[in-house]
Design a protein that fits this description.
It is built from 17 helices and 28 strands. By secondary structure, the chain is α/β, with parallel strands linked by helices. InterPro entries: APS (IPR002891), APS_kinase_dom (IPR059117), CysN_GTP-bd (IPR041757), CysN_II (IPR044138), CysN_NoDQ_III (IPR044139), G_TR_CS (IPR031157), GTP-eEF1A_C (IPR054696), P-loop_NTPase (IPR027417).
Length: 633
């Protein structure tokens, strides 16, 4: 059998040499829930004699509560190691297993089938060369089968095994296999897979897993393990242009400066020219330093420190690249985005975008369309819900370095991180930079913010009043505006209701519209601060993420968050516009505090409680805070 070792055990040197020379295949198992993914990998390892005795001892039986009988080992438990997985009989997290045969080394990621854990499937697929898509022969192609197939294609997997499982339950009928294989090929025709190998299997009993089954004499193709050992992979990454994302600048002493990172693609040798991607500075490689000593050359996957012949500016987030094949450097691009979070992705909302080594603030400027997983049709959408896929235009606050994902998976991917929770909420694959980025440049001006502020004898500030409707934001801001005006300060007040009569009159009160409402106002406030003004912004601004986005637009210490804290009952009692009565009666949708959430500030610069003091007294407190913090007397 192919899994038997070809080198005698006593010839250790030859064995290690052969092992090191083997190619590595990274693959995933995926598909709908309960299609037998974990059982398949467990069966493959068991039949190939790649399981240790102590592992077998710890396995349960198929006859455990809720299962079929007590005779067979429950092979799925080799992969489902979490207590919750064993209790529920499902895969939740990604389980990795490493094994080798006489022909090849393998890294397999067993991914969950539940739609809720699609993000974990994406994690496993992001580095895989091949996907094993399982289908229950009784069920056929299910929505999650389609979803996982599409995501595998989107993530750059080009080789696929269609494992038609549980074939013993349909009496090994060829007609069932032919129909499923035909339907799947028709469905996957648009996905761009280079190869699709269909195999009828029974993971439970091992049919066609490591050797041909007598139960399927009509099937003339390879068994699963045989195919995995022999499938031809894509050309080696060394043929792609050199890319080294800089993770760390090494300065152990004054005479050494090295740029450390893992080579994402290509090959580099001592003496080769390189370019710093963001600045365009040229240099050449003087030394390739590793933990085990200096190397004359290094290739994709190796962790190295490059010492250059010249002093260049290449900090973390930059990239050293081949001069003749440079990546893109842009702050606007199109990408496919897979959304993970229960809270929808909304255009206009700010996120943190992280590449392999870079981290910048970013905004989805447009959701061009959502992709229908079943038909691949492009559908109009205003947001992306959890596990949905869409094509977006994205803008970052600073340029990033990237390749198109189809050209380089390592340098063409990113994740979105929520500003407030620091949770990963989405993953993206970059398609191309937007040409508009080449047409928009900063115009230098002779009169700057400092000059404008000096002329007004004040320091600019953005006072951001946030709180429920009826909390007293506008009343307090108006009182403060009068106080500052009386002292000769140059101010301007941006009120939520007033702005909706003009700049934002096209926006409604959906969550997406509220996000855009705050984004526009934050940009206007930034321009006014640049003019040297003290800007008073009075908006409910219910979401922490948008307030954080506004803060990051301003200079340090320029943004002052003022939480006007009034209990909901008191706001409803005041009800100056009669809105709470209508909202509580269900006549107004998406009303903050009633049918839409308000996320109170966690660390505002000022926390004002209006029940205890009148608006003028609170305005005086803000004035005193400004005097103490900014010296604007």
């Amino acid at each position: 059998m192919s899994y038997l070792q070809s080198v005698p055990p006593h010839d250790l040197g030859a064995h290690l040499a052969e092992h090191d020379s083997k190619t590595v295949l990274r693959f995933i198992t995926c598909g709908s829930v309960d299609d037998g993914k974990s059982t398949l990998i467990g069966r493959l390892l068991f039949d190939a004699k790649l399981i240790f005795e102590d592992q077998l001892t710890n396995l349960g039986r198929v006859g455990s509560p809720g299962t079929a009988n007590g005779e067979e080992i429950d092979l799925a438990l080799l992969l489902d190691g979490l207590e919750a997985e064993r209790e529920q009989g499902i895969t939740i997290d990604v389980a990795y297993r490493y094994f080798a045969t006489s022909k090849r080394k393998f890294i397999v990621a067993d991914t969950p089938g539940h739609e809720e854990y699609t993000r974990n499937m994406v994690t496993g697929a992001s580095t895989a060369d091949l996907a094993v898509i399982l289908i229950d022969s009784r069920q056929g192609i299910l929505p999650q089968t389609r979803r996982h197939s599409y995501i595998a294609s989107l993530l750059g997997i080009r080789h696929l095994v269609l494992a038609v499982n549980k074939f013993d339950l349909v009496e090994f009928r060829q007609s069932v296999f032919d129909e499923i294989a035909r339907d799947y090929r028709a469905f996957a025709k648009k996905l761009g897979f280079v190869s699709i190998q269909s195999i009828p299997i029974s993971a439970r009993f091992g049919d066609n897993v490591i050797s041909a089954s007598q139960n399927t004499p009509w099937y003339k193709g390879p068994a699963l393990l045989e195919y995995l050992e022999t499938v031809q992979l894509d050309p080696p990454a060394a043929e792609r242009p050199f890319r080294l994302p800089v993770q760390l600048v090494m300065r152990p002493h004054a005479d050494f400066r090295g740029y450390a990172g893992q080579i994402a693609s290509g090959r580099i040798s001592v003496g080769d020219p390189v370019v710093v991607a963001k600045s365009g500075q040229h240099s050449s490689v003087e030394a390739i330093v590793t933990f085990d000593g200096n190397l004359p050359t290094a290739a994709e996957g190796e962790a190295v420190t490059l010492v250059l012949a010249d002093e260049v500016d290449a900090s973390r987030g930059n990239m050293l690249v081949a001069p003749a094949a440079r990546p893109f450097v842009a702050d606007q691009f199109q990408a496919h985005v897979i959304w993970f979070d229960a809270s929808p992705m909304l255009p206009g909302r700010g996120y943190i975008l992280r590449t392999e080594t870079d981290s910048v603030s970013a905004t989805v400027t447009a959701l061009k369309h959502q992709v229908n997983i079943n038909s691949f049709a492009r559908e109009a959408a205003k947001s992306l819900q959890m596990n949905e896929v869409g094509v977006c235009n994205i803008s970052t606050q600073a340029p990033i370095v990237f390749d198109a994902y189809k050209d380089n998976r390592a340098t063409g991917n990113f994740v979105f991180v929520d500003r407030a929770t620091n949770a990963t909420v989405g993953a993206g694959m970059i398609d191309f930079p937007l040409r508009r980025a080449d047409n928009v440049h900063w115009q230098a001006t002779d009169v700057n913010k400092a000059a404008r502020s000096a002329m007004k004898s004040q320091r600019p500030a953005v006072l951001w009043f946030t709180g429920l409707s009826g909390s007293g934001k506008s009343t307090i801001a108006n009182a403060l505006d009068r106080l500052l005006h009386a002292r000769g300060k140059h101010t301007y007040m941006l009120d939520g209701d007033n702005v909706r009569h003009g700049l934002n009159r096209d926006l409604g009160f959906t969550e997406a519209d509220r996000v855009e409402n705050i984004r526009r106002v934050a940009e206007v406030a930034k321009l006014m601060a640049d003019a040297g003004l003290i800007v008073l912004v009075s908006f409910i601004s219910p979401f922490r993420g948008e307030r954080q986005m506004a803060r990051e637009l301003m200079e340090e210490c320029e943004f002052i968050e003022i939480f006007v804290d009034t209990p909901l009952e008191e706001c409803a009692r005041r009800d100056p516009k009669g809105l709470y009565e209508k909202a509580l009666a269900g006549k107004i949708a998406n009303f903050t505090g009633v049918s839409s959430p308000y996320e109170a500030p966690e660390n505002p610069e000022l926390h004002l409680k209006t029940v205890e003091e009148d608006p003028t007294t609170l305005a005086l407190k803000i004035e005193a805070f400004l005097d103490g913090q900014r010296g604007d007397r």
